[in-house]
């Protein structure tokens, strides 16, 4: 296995009769942004905590660089929990220095890195404030700084964008891109699927503790149901309903969106559209990640 790879290999976890994870498998590669998406209770946080060694799996294994997760390995992981994991009465700078020292940094190195991330994340004016006096968005920035301050070799972030304003989202996104560009594997969960689609190299979709789809965003979207967008302003209502392979058609102001069955002949659709008059647009449309997520989860639930 190449250097810098976090592997989650067939991990399972039960709480009595409740199956939290069932043979969960995925990996996060060096320099990659991996999005971990799923409904509430799907198992994302449980998988992350097992990856960190906070929870023990009933079966399966988590490996970093081909070896098991150990105490020393965990010190090289940057973790950002969904819940606030900060001491509310500690001052921002003191808090970050303390956490960096817990990860093995010298006091001088801890101060240097803490000041660096305070500046990078726009917290310089709040460095002497108690955490509890910060807004929720600034607390989230401190939480990210806490995950980064010890210069981790891998980042595991649980809902890092929760509660952030658009400016803070941009700052957070840029930091994650930079860490990935530096060769750090980055895995994060989020319900903001448009953001996941924009940021991530690969995405894993989780349902009921199982990975139901995993791969590059473009490949996942390409595997979804194909649609055609046809702008034929003179076409009458229902003009495409009888065409072979057309599952559904929605027309508004002359613009028709067609859902096609696999193997449907789009040229037959174009011929039918041209028969009604001019065609101003004829383009194939792939589902967004949000649409793909809904389709995958709905299909799995129905089986």
UniProtKB/TrEMBL annotation:
Signal peptide annotation: none
Key words, A-Z: ATP-binding, Nucleotide-binding, Transport
Domain ABC transporter: residue ranges: 6-233
Record InterPro entries: AAA+_ATPase (IPR003593), ABC_transporter-like_ATP-bd (IPR003439), ABC_transporter-like_CS (IPR017871), DrrA1/2-like_C (IPR025302), P-loop_NTPase (IPR027417)
SUPFAM superfamilies: P-loop containing nucleoside triphosphate hydrolases (SSF52540)
Pfam family of the protein (one): ABC_tran
A GO molecular-function annotation: ATP binding
Key word Cell division present: no
Entry similarity comment: Belongs to the ABC transporter superfamily.
PANTHER family documented for this protein: ABC TRANSPORTER, ATP-BINDING PROTEIN (PTHR43335:SF4)
Name of the protein: ABC transporter ATP-binding protein
């Amino acid at each position: 296995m190449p250097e810098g790879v976090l592997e989650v290999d067939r991990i399972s976890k039960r709480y009595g009769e409740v199956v939290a994870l069932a043979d969960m498998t995925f990996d996060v590669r060096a320099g990659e942004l991996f999005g971990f998406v799923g409904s509430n209770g799907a198992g994302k946080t449980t998988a992350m905590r097992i990856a960190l060694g906070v929870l023990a799996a009933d079966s399966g294994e988590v490996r970093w660089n081909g070896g098991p997760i150990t105490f020393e390995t965990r010190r090289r992981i940057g973790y950002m929990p969904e819940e606030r994991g900060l001491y509310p009465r500690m001052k921002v700078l003191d808090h970050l220095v303390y956490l960096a020292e817990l990860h093995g940094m010298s006091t001088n190195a801890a101060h240097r890195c803490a000041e660096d991330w305070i500046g990078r994340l726009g917290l310089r004016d709040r460095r002497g404030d108690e955490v509890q006096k910060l807004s929720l968005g600034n607390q989230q920035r401190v939480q990210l700084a806490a995950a980064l301050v010890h210069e981790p070799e891998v980042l595991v972030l649980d809902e890092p964008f929760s509660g952030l304003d658009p400016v803070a989202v941009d700052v957070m996104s840029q930091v994650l891109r930079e860490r990935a560009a530096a060769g750090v594997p980055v895995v994060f969960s989020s319900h903001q699927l448009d953001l996941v689609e924009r940021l991530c190299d690969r995405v894993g979709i989780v349902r009921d503790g199982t990975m139901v789809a995993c791969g590059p965003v473009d490949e996942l979207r390409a595997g979804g149901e194909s649609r055609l967008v046809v702008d034929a302003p003179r076409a009458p209502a229902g003009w495409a309903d009888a065409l072979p392979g057309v599952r559904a058609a929605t027309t508004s102001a002359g613009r028709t969106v067609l859902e096609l069955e696999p193997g449907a002949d789009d040229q037959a659709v174009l011929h039918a559209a041209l028969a009604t008059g001019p065609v101003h647009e004829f383009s194939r449309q792939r589902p967004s990640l949000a649409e793909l997520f809904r389709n995958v989860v709905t299909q799995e639930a129905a089986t």
